[in-house]
Design a protein that fits this description.
α11 packs across α12. It is globular and about 60 Å long. It has one domain. By secondary structure, the protein is α+β, with helices and mostly antiparallel strands. It is built from 14 helices and 12 strands.
Amino acid sequence: MRKLLVVCLALILTLLSASVVFAQDEGDTAASPFVACGVLEGDDCDLLLTAWKNMEQLTSGSSESNLALDVSNVPNLPMDRINLEVHRTAQFNADEALVQRLIDLQAMSSEEISALLADQDEYRALTAELIAGLDTAQTLNFTFSEELAATISEAAGMNIPTELKLDLVLKDGTVYIFLDDIIKFVPNIPPLLRGWVGIQIQPLIDQALADPDALGLPVGPEMLEFVAPGVGLAGVGLAMHAPLNRYADAYRQDDGSSDTATYEVDENFVGYFTSSEFRDLLMLVLEQADVAPEGELTADDVDQMASVLTMLAPVLFEDLSYTLMHEVDTASETVTSVAGVLDWDTTGLFETIATLQNSDEMMVESPPKIYMEGETVYSDSNSGAQVQAPGGAFVLPVQMIMGILGGM
């Protein structure tokens, strides 16, 4: 039962984070952190930016996503090949006030977000807004290679199957989880708990704030120390995209005669990793990851590392390609799909590491490759369709949950 609850709490956090990302889609395109115009000018650029801006402001919609990851022949991995496929369907509806709140949050600096998390009242208010203002339903299907499933099972202490399905719903502040999916890898679920089971989130958070030791995790001001590295690195991710876009080549692929505009964006990683913008980001990464706390890393140190990377970048990244395809409906000026392919032959990377370490441990016999492709198709944008709670669900009493956690 305790293991089940830990899994459920992890799924709640996953659901909330994924839902927020889905509701925001690609972020505030006024600053274009994720959208590159490249050489595009005039109406072609305006249409791409406007479409993503409109997606950011959606209050309802649906999407279907597919992701495939294949990693092979990478030295020091516990397996020769990692193969993973994920299929996700999602629906959401959000209050306009919450959508604006998310836009405002995206504009905040990492320091401002850290301050918000450190204030217990502000933290509770934020979680209350998210929980009350967002409904979402998601189905996720995972397919693991047998070797990957076995490795995950050993690490997690659970028997993870090669095919796994999760059904999750967040409605009116309650997360519903279809336990018949989870019983496949948590077999000791009590017979009473079958089908849909709900957990009310806000009362659980309120109880945890009143008794910070109940969850076994820091709550309130202490949470800052627990989550700050993640918040900081998330900010690093956003900081990376805007300057990276200046090293992207974007093209409109269609001739303008149809109702769909197609854009291709190719990232120039060699240009970016040899730029002054990357030098500034390198300093930020090292500080946020606590590899080199502020004051312990000088500008000369960073310059030296950046200079080395400038020399090595052509070798490290010449076989890395990353292409995004955006499709935009020209009538509604909304994005209908986005697809991406990352293909990286990392032979040069590991040969360079082996040379620098003066060791043959990283030398490769077969080319180590990382390949990832994914696509998300958007539909029902601002259709007003509402997420429905599953019928016949059993909602776990909060005191029962806290009692289980207190005994862990």
